[in-house]
Specification:
The structure holds two protein chains of two kinds. Chain A is an alpha/beta fold. In chain A, about 30% of the residues lie in helices and about 25% in strands. Chain A has eleven helices and 20 strands. Chain B folds into two domains: about 5-70, VC0802-like (2-Layer Sandwich); about 70-140, VC0802-like (2-Layer Sandwich), CATH 3.30.2130.10. Helix content of chain B is about 35%, strand content about 40%. Chain B has helices spanning about 15-25, 50-60, 80-90, 120-125, 135-140; strands at about 5-10, 30-40, 40-50, 65-75, 95-105, 110-115, 130. In chain B, strands 1, 2, 3, 4, 5, 6 and 7 form a seven-stranded antiparallel sheet that branches. The chains are: A alpha/beta, B alpha+beta. The interface of A and B includes residues 375, 376, 383, 384 and 414 of A.
Chain lengths: ~425, ~140
């Protein structure tokens, strides 16, 4: 099923042509309307007339989250406020939040892109979509909500949290789709299990999961526990929100809506573009947005792009599941550690669940990594040696994956915080 | 003759044991005997209680990792050499003991044993005319 087949299956030349036109238009607009961009381009010696096609994009300077913070709240907007009909903001876990503004056309463009994504994921107007992302400044809830409506499906705007109610509505309304973070999906599965409800008795068939990195093994677990197809959707508020890219039903990478969001992969150290297929930092330029167009915005997400045509027939470039965020990455004794690696190890072991917490500390000059893992009831043994063996096994599996030594601590079930939003997986005590 | 012992996973931090004791106490469940096995990170509380099934349910409801484990309770005279005699019998039959703990009440001593093979242990001790407590008796002590 295609929402806009002429774009989604277009030959590369057609896409490049659209991208070139839109990029040139965007560069001209921001140069004219955004003092921040004019200054930045002037100081890099770039004029709008230097940009003749999409291939010239690498001449443009990058935009960082800090640039948005420094121009807080509306300094990077390209339209006067009377043309802005909505704002959203990032969670702002560190420092000021980053604020984005949408024109009327932007909201339509966003809804269109989310609808395209949902269609890719196999949704139709017959679906009953439970939107369990938070509604509010966060783009997740409203983004999926408008996209669902645009598709013509039924939106259930329940927002995040209140798990009992989520389950009640799944039963009473016959929700066929759940949209939330993957960690919350696992939590819902846990509560269903506690309540003695068989997921197969629900009409749920698809999950649209995003807003945090998750592994392939986590996908398998969610699919098996909730009896659904788990689809990865990608987006970030700076670019538009969810709907920048999404998997089709083949689940073979996320199709980027590249007629609106142009992706590049760069080396995060040298900032040079990397050849197609290499893993690096994902950089996006918005080429159709009016409210706050961003050029070469550094997402800090690490992934690679796949340019082959997908089995589904789409030619839109695909991005692989993110390997983690470069600012989420821990460097422990010189080794790069992604929490998602540890999650994969735990998921691959039949004895553990992916409820873990990483604690990084510095003892003297040595960084230490402690992994707390919950002892699930079904794996609890009342013999010390069995538990010590379990702990040793987790330790050696993690160590062989990470290549550094770790300590493993078994903790009681439910001691690691569950959240309806992004799961907190790391406590880094080195910074204080 | 099989006694159902309650086994609870405890993190090695203050207040955990007292929470378990409080939950059981509030439910009117008495602990006849208990021991704690500990490592630097965690401990396991093993307890013989008056109502193991109820205790299991209450602790589960409070998110503890908990299970019931089959154990044997041997009664022997509270005097030198009594334990040695019982252990020799088990040794002769190659019955491995995972762990044990004991409490004495006046003239007799009660020894809770977690053997590798519970039924074989019971049969062996009974064949040697050693006295075992049955569950209904133990919970009343």
């Amino acid at each position: 099923m295609f929402w806009t087949k002429e774009i989604e299956c277009a030959p590369r030349e057609i896409i490049s042509k659209i991208q070139s036109e839109r990029l040139i238009n965007t560069v001209n607009r921001v140069y004219k309307n955004v003092p921040y961009y004019r200054k930045k381009m002037d100081s890099s010696g770039i004029k709008p007339s230097d940009i003749l096609s999409i291939d010239d994009i690498s001449k443009l300077p990058f935009t960082n989250k800090d640039d948005l913070r420094n121009n807080y709240p509306f300094g990077t907007f390209a339209l006067p406020m009377d043309q802005i009909i909505r704002v959203h903001a990032s969670s702002g876990t560190t420092g000021r939040p980053t604020v984005v503004g949408y024109s009327k056309n932007d909201i339509e463009m966003w809804s269109e892109n989310v609808a395209r994504c949902l269609c890719m994921a196999g949704l139709t107007q017959n679906d009953m979509v439970q939107v369990a992302y938070g509604y509010g400044l966060f783009t997740g809830g409203l983004g999926l909500h408008y996209g669902t409506e645009h598709l013509g499906a039924t939106a259930i705007p329940i927002s995040g949290g209140n798990t009992q109610k989520q389950i009640q509505l799944m039963q009473d309304f016959g929700s066929t789709v759940i949209c939330c973070t993957p960690s919350y999906a696992l939590y819902i599965a846990e509560v269903l299990n506690e309540m003695g409800i068989d997921p197969a008795s629900l009409k749920l068939r698809v999950g649209i999961f995003g807003a945090e990195p998750w592994s392939e093994s986590m996908r398998k677990e969610i699919e098996q526990k909730l009896k659904i197809k788990a689809i990865d959707i990608y987006g970030l508020s700076e670019i538009v929100g969810p709907g920048v890219s999404c998997e089709c039903t083949y689940q073979a990478g996320m199709h980027v809506n590249e007629d609106h969001f142009y992706p590049e992969i760069i080396d995060p150290e040298t900032l040079q573009p990397l050849p197609p297929g290499e893993i690096g930092e994902l950089v996006f330029s918005t080429i159709s947005k009016e409210g706050i167009p961003l050029l070469r915005y550094r997402t800090r997400d690490l992934t690679r792009l796949i340019f082959d045509q997908c089995e589904c027939g789409r030619t839109l470039v695909r991005m692989e599941k993110c390997k983690g965020r470069s600012d989420d990455m821990l460097i422990i004794r010189g080794v790069n550690v992604f929490p998602s690696q540890i999650e994969s190890v735990l998921l691959e072991m039949s004895e553990t669940e992916p409820h873990y917490l990483l604690i990084v500390e510095r003892e003297g000059n040595l960084d230490t990594l402690k992994v707390q893992v919950e002892v699930q009831e079904q794996f609890f043994s009342d013999e010390i040696k069995e538990l010590q063996n379990l702990s040793k096994k987790i330790k050696s599996n993690i160590e062989s994956t990470l290549g550094i030594s770790v300590t493993v601590q078994l903790v009681e079930p439910r001691t690691i915080e569950r959240t309806a939003g992004k799961a907190k997986r790391v406590i880094d005590k080195r910074q204080t | 003759m099989i006694i159902k012992q309650l086994s609870v996973f405890l993190e090695n931090k203050s207040g955990r044991l007292s929470e378990v004791a409080g939950l059981l106490g509030n439910a009117g469940i008495n602990m006849t005997a208990f021991s704690i096995a500990d490592t630097s990170d965690f401990g396991i509380l093993r307890a013989v209680v008056s109502n193991p099934d109820k205790a299991l349910r209450i602790l589960k409801e409070n998110n503890f990792s908990v299970q019931l484990t089959d154990v044997v309770c041997l009664i022997c005279p509270n005097e030198p050499g009594a334990l040695a005699k019982a252990l020799k019998i088990l040794e002769a039959e190659n019955i491995a003991i995972e762990y044990m703990y004991a409490f004495s009440t006046g003239k007799s001593a009660n020894i809770v044993i977690r053997p590798a093979n519970v039924q074989k242990c019971i049969n062996t001790l009974q064949n040697h005319k050693l006295e075992l407590l049955n569950s209904s008796d133990l919970y009343k002590i």
